[in-house]
Amino acid sequence: MKRTSSAKKLIVAGLAAATVAGAAFAFANTLTVNSTTLGSGTDPVASPACSPDVSYETTWNTTTAKFDVTKVTADTDAACDGKQIQAALTGSSGSLWSSGAAETIASGTTFWTIDADMVNATDVTNAYATVTG
After folding, report:
1. Half-sphere exposure of residue 74, counting CA atoms within 13 Å on the CB side?
2. Burial class of 61 by CB neighbour count within 10 A (0 to 12, 13 to 18, 19+)
3. What does the domain layout of the chain look like in residue ranges?
4. Residue 98's closest CA among 64, 76, 69, 75?
5. I need a surface site. Which of 12, 108, 130, 131 has the fewest CB within 10 A?
6. How many C-beta neighbours within 10 Å does residue 59 have?
7. Residue 123 near residue 91, CB atoms below 8 Å
8. pLDDT tens for each residue of the chain, 133 residues long
């Protein structure tokens, strides 16, 4: 008799776990996914209309005999106007520089100057911008 009781408990526990998992999955599928909102789902996300071109400039540092990154530029178009932008430089060891607080984009170019000796150009592997809004 003890064996039947344990088997019943195991079956009830399995059904309860399946019910909870099913409810969690159903809730997750109600979240939206689109170009401006990310939740959980399977809807395709359109490419962003605002895609800035990010570049950086270097200057020769005579003291260290290396090139330093002195300016980061994000070129944008009208699709970016009014949105917020931040820029960053990364290297193999992670973040090298970040623009900090987001700035509002106006048509054209947004740029940030960087103090000499702050970022060695040979350490930079990627320059990118994050646009929100």
Report:
1. 28
2. middle
3. 1-46, 53-132
4. 69
5. 12
6. 13
7. yes
8. 555 666 677 676 666 666 766 655 555 555 566 656 656 566 665 666 888 999 999 999 999 999 999 999 999 888 899 999 999 999 998 999 999 889 999 878 889 999 988 999 999 999 999 998 8
